[in-house]
Write a structure and sequence with these properties.
Phenylalanyl-tRNA Synthetase, Chain B, domain 1; single chain; two-stranded antiparallel ribbon; 55% helix; elongated
């Protein structure tokens, strides 16, 4: 189940708006009612209804899954310094160390 932040962000993007902390605020009072939109100040765009938010569940799940993959990839890629070193050595030696390292990270963390 995707989080409210993701669904609100998708709603905003679908309506040609971007997230702005000065215009929207989410909250959760830990009272068992879950997350909700506490503040909404977008000119020309009504606060989304519960039904509108719910309609972004599937897209929200997809976006969150992709974000998790990209976060994992970022952690696993060698540092830029190490990647540049690999590329330099590959040029000198005719090897594919860098290409292989990047391919492994991508295959270990597929987008789909």
């Amino acid at each position: 189940m995707s989080i409210l932040y993701t669904k609100v962000k998708l709603y905003l993007e679908a309506n040609s708006k971007t997230w702005d902390d000065e215009k929207v605020e989410l909250a959760n009072y830990s009272d068992g009612n879950g997350d909700f939109i506490k503040k909404w100040n977008y000119n020309g765009l009504a606060k989304p209804t519960a039904e509108q938010i719910a309609s972004y569940e599937t897209d929200g799940n997809t976006a969150e899954t992709l974000q998790a993959v990209l976060t994992n990839r970022k952690k696993e890629y060698p540092s830029i310094k190490d990647q540049l070193d690999m590329q330099y050595k590959d040029l000198l030696n005719g090897t594919t160390t860098w290409k292989d390292a990047v391919a492994k990270v991508k295959s270990d963390n597929p987008k789909s």
